[in-house]
Amino acid sequence: MIKRFVAKVQDLFKRKPRLRKEPKQLAVAEHGINPQLVPRNAFRVCETLQKAGFKAYIVGGAVRDLLLGVAPKDFDVATDATPEQVKSHFRRAIIIGRRFRLVHVMFGAETIEVSTFRALDNPDRQTDEHGRVLADNLYGPQHEDATRRDFTINALYYDPLTQTVLDYHDGVKDVRRKRLRMIGDPATRYREDPVRMLRAVRFAAKLGFEIDEATRTPIREMAALLENVPAARVFDEMLKLLMSGHSVACITRLRAEGLHHGVLPLLDVILEQPEGERFVMLALSRTDERVRAGKHIAPGFLFATLLWHEVLKRWKEREARGEHRIPALDSAIDDVQDLQTEKLAIQRRYTSDMREIWMLQPRLERRTGRNAFKLLEHLRLRAGYDFLLLRCAADEAPNELGDWWTRFMAADADEREQLVTTVGRSEPAATAPKRRRRRRGGGRGAAGGDEPATHSSATDGGA
Ligand code: ATP
Ligand code: MG
To answer: Smallest Cα–Cα separation from 14: which of 158, 218, 203?
Structure first.
């Protein structure tokens, strides 16, 4: 009897997000945030709004990173001023978004995103007597804004003027304990927004945090809910995950939590082929190194690496059916991109980069005559070359080919002529129309053998 009562009470507490109206207030001695890490513009936005009589705090990921002593990559501000009020206090500010509007305050190249405190979703309050959504009801008190955020470590507010942290959900304690804990009942919150499962994995991997047991447990059985999320949203989150500088850790965790199926529909297929897995993991660890070194990452390149083995497989199949080498590659790319576009919504600007990088691979193998010179004018040569180096590193293309291009690209005109001659001399077969030779000689078996088509042709020196 008592047991059942206790269980019921526990259940009640679990379901209802705790609505703590008064936050803990932590002074600098307790939170230890270094004010030097707050850029001038983020400070200025808070200061301007506060001088105008509003509340204004740095929120979300920035506070979490500040507590960890890491310089945040961007700063968001939350306020009780409406978007119009915010806009009116800055010279360069625009309101974006339709239903829930935000203000982008711009200072040169830097943008500070300012959002008005949001109310908890409450169906009774969102409509008027005719059922019309009342925009004003989207805004609410600060404690509701805190409760509708995802994890406790993301629900902290930092006032850079007084250097105080407001903590409604014991987020500071969780930062210290390195724990990722969902606010409210995790299953309910994942149902409201399944993307939170991907966010859990990303934050845990990126920050090296443990996912709290109650937050972690429902993920496996709720993973399928991600299929109902609009593809564009999943894509955005995947991109964040892959560009976090911890993509290897993220992918490893995605798999551990059973989340890789359906997230990047072809990723699970790729990761199940040993060759594909090696290539993807190598590509991801290089991406991580670049991100951590502060270098630029082109999403098109990244997705080209993730899907390369799917393209290779289909390319090989098409060649085995007797299709010509280049059109076969072109069609293999269509096959893979159609599948992806349907499920993942990789944006068009990236898919065309991917196609160019892939189409460059057989062209990079043809170095004789004017072929290599023509490629020097290709706008995507650099990306295609980087991709080739990755294939070399994964033992999918001969190192000699990658080294040759490294030298060729750095050389002057005379040296280039010489390099081309050397290829012509050492690889006389390169001038023969290899495509036909291979298909006639080897028939189906040769083209459909174990090695990817590019591999064998690269070894041959290309035609
Ligand atoms: P990052 O360092 O990747 O930017 P972040 O925590 O700032 O991490 P954002 O996606 O920029 O993540 O979101 C800003 C804040 O908005 C989060 O810290 C969180 O408080 C809130 N938030 C974002 N997405 C969600 C969501 N799906 N559900 C609830 N709250 C969210
Ligand atoms: Mg952020």
So the answer is: 218
* Atom 21 in ligand 1: residue holding the nearest Cα: 149
E strands in 40-148: 56-59, 76-79, 93-96, 102-107, 110-116
> Could you please report the per-residue DSSP string of 365-393?
H--TTTHHHHHTT-TTHHHHHHHHHHHHH
**Rounded to whole angstroms, how far apart are CA atoms 367 and 377?**
14
* Entry pTM: 0.80
Q: Is 386 a catalytic residue?
A: no
Number of domains in the chain: 3
Tell me which residue of 348, 341, 203, 327 sits closest to 266, measured CA to CA.
Answer: 341
Q: Which helix (H) or strand (E) holds 431?
A: none
- Let me know whether 247 and 377 are in one domain: no
Secondary structure (3-state) at 210 = strand
Q: Which residues surround ligand 2, an ion (CB under 5 A)?
A: 61
Binding pocket residue ranges, ligand 1, CB within 6 Å: 60-61, 76, 149-150, 154-155, 193, 195-196, 240
The one-letter code for the residue type at 318 is R
Is 213 part of any domain? yes
- The string of pLDDT tens digits covering residues 286-334 is 999 999 998 988 999 999 998 999 899 999 999 999 999 999 999 999 9
Q: Are 346 and 235 in contact (CB under 8 A)?
A: yes
Q: Is 13 contained in some domain?
A: no
CA distance 183 to 220: 19
| Final residue before a domain boundary, out of 263, 288, 317 | 263
Distance in Å, CA 104 to ligand 1 centroid? 16
